[in-house]
């Protein structure tokens, strides 16, 4: 197999024809999370922190930090109504703090992945308690407008899909690996 692709045995994504809307949304979200993780696999701190093209601050490490912050914001702050807690890796004077702080330091890499995984685990634990009927329940989002849990889950799939595409291009620029 070309070194442009991961070995199929390393691909943990599932395509199990889930039954029900909640199961479908969860499978898509889980698969996109795994796609981002696969794009980062086998890279060192310098490669993970490598910026794409100036003036962009985007890097794979920045994406991991950003997605951890996004998971925390939507699943913890919004869906569980903990808006009084500050957002992770977001600064009022630097809207790119999640990307700007993505530096080539093994400790930063370790903390970024640990934070992202903690946020995913917390989100999944919350989703485990959610009934299919809850998907239509509305919560207030940042602008005070109502949105259904369903809309927020679809938004999370969209967020990951967009960033998985970014991750694909970033990884290709680092070592030529594409696909998946």
Automatic annotation (TrEMBL):
Q: Which InterPro entries match?
A: DinB/YfiT-like, MST-like
> Pfam families, from UniProt?
MST
* Name of the protein described by the UniProt record: DinB family protein
> From which organism does this entry originate?
Actinocatenispora rupis
């Amino acid at each position: 197999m070309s070194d442009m692709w991961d070995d199929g045995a390393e691909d943990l994504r599932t395509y199990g024809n889930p039954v029900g809307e909640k199961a479908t949304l969860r499978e898509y979200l889980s698969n996109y999370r795994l796609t981002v993780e696969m794009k980062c696999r086998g890279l060192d701190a310098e490669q993970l922190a490598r910026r794409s093209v100036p003036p962009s601050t985007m890097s794979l490490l920045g994406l991991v930090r950003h997605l951890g912050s996004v998971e925390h914001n939507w699943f913890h702050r919004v869906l569980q109504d903990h808006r009084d807690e500050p957002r992770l890796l977001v600064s009022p004077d630097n809207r790119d703090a999640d990307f700007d702080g993505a530096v080539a330091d093994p400790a930063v890499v370790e903390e970024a992945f640990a934070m992202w995984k903690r946020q995913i685990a917390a989100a999944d634990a919350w989703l485990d308690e959610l009934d299919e009927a809850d998907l239509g329940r509305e919560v207030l989002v940042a602008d005070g407008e109502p949105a259904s849990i369903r809309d927020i889950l679809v938004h999370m799939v969209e967020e990951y899909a967009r960033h998985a595409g970014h991750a694909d291009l970033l990884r290709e620029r680092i070592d030529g690996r594409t696909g998946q």
